């Protein structure tokens, strides 16, 4: 029986997932599984995708729908509910949709080996759906954090607030924004690079380009840098396990 998987998102031709799963199925000699992109301009079209594709086993969800997709689902795992964002959907034989978040898992396991005793506080750049998974993972790791956004609010600093004192106190920087993604490879979040040192970890969730401008500049300052590729692989494998296990289970 053919198993169909796919990705929900907007402008997702660049997608990591489709190529990754095609390669995975090829290596497994699994000719019964397929993975396709469902590119939609607005989240309200998600219902049409489900209606027209009754035989889908599971879906991934990417920007900008990780939060807005939640009302369209029948249930959420405990972790997805706590995070408030979904990147994986399991579909039952009866067509029920359950949302999960595997982004936190991918980030948690990819950053953990880099952490030293000096890495106690982090700055999370961005406040979108991806940032919520990072927040959840940092809580599990016992790392304190502060959100950074374009404008200051009760919950976040503005980029213009960042100074030497804040950067020296927060030795982990995590970019959850799309700033610096191909083709805009010369861009980077408005972080004061001069205050980054060899005590910092700079983790950029972007994977295309392989080395973002933020990573390049931070590396020149001696920081440990990492892109989002390993996180993506780990979250994808976790999603695949969810799709292929009995429903429902958290």
From TrEMBL:
PANTHER family: BIFUNCTIONAL 3-DEHYDROQUINATE DEHYDRATASE_SHIKIMATE DEHYDROGENASE, CHLOROPLASTIC (PTHR21089:SF1), SHIKIMATE DEHYDROGENASE (PTHR21089). Pathway: Metabolic intermediate biosynthesis; chorismate biosynthesis; chorismate from D-erythrose 4-phosphate and phosphoenolpyruvate: step 4/7. This is Shikimate dehydrogenase. Residues 7-89 form the Shikimate dehydrogenase substrate binding N-terminal domain. Keywords: Amino-acid biosynthesis, Aromatic amino acid biosynthesis, Oxidoreductase. GO terms for cellular component: cytosol. InterPro entries: Aminoacid_DH-like_N_sf, NAD(P)-bd_dom_sf, Shikimate_DH-bd_N, Shikimate_DH_fam. It comes from the Bacteria. One of its GO terms (molecular function) is shikimate 3-dehydrogenase (NADP+) activity. Pfam families: Shikimate_dh_N (PF08501). It comes from Myroides phaeus. GO terms for biological process: aromatic amino acid family biosynthetic process; chorismate biosynthetic process; shikimate metabolic process.
């Amino acid at each position: 029986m053919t198993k169909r998987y796919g990705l929900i998102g907007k402008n997702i031709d660049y997608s990591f997932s489709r190529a990754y799963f095609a390669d995975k199925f090829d290596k497994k000699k699994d000719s019964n599984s397929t993975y396709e992109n469902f590119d939609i301009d607005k989240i309200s079209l998600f219902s049409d995708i489900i209606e027209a594709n009754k035989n889908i086993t599971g879906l991934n969800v990417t920007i900008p729908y990780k939060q807005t997709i939640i009302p369209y689902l029948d249930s959420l795992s405990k972790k997805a509910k706590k995070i408030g964002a979904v990147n994986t959907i399991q579909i039952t034989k009866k067509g029920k949709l359950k949302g999960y978040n595997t982004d936190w898992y991918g980030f948690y396991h990819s950053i953990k080996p880099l952490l030293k005793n000096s890495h106690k506080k982090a700055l999370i750049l961005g406040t979108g759906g991806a940032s919520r998974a990072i927040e959840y993972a940092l809580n599990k790791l016992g790392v304190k954090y502060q959100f950074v956004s374009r404008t200051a609010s009760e919950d976040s600093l503005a980029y213009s607030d960042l100074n030497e004192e804040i950067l020296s106190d927060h030795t982990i920087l995590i970019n959850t924004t799309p700033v610096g993604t191909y083709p805009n490879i010369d861009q980077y979040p408005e972080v004061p690079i001069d205050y980054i040192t060899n005590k910092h970890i700079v983790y950029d969730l972007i994977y295309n380009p392989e080395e973002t401008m933020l990573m390049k500049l931070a590396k020149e300052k001696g920081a440990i840098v990492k892109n989002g590729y390993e996180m993506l692989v780990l979250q994808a494998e976790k999603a695949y396990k969810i799709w292929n296990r009995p429903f429902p289970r958290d």
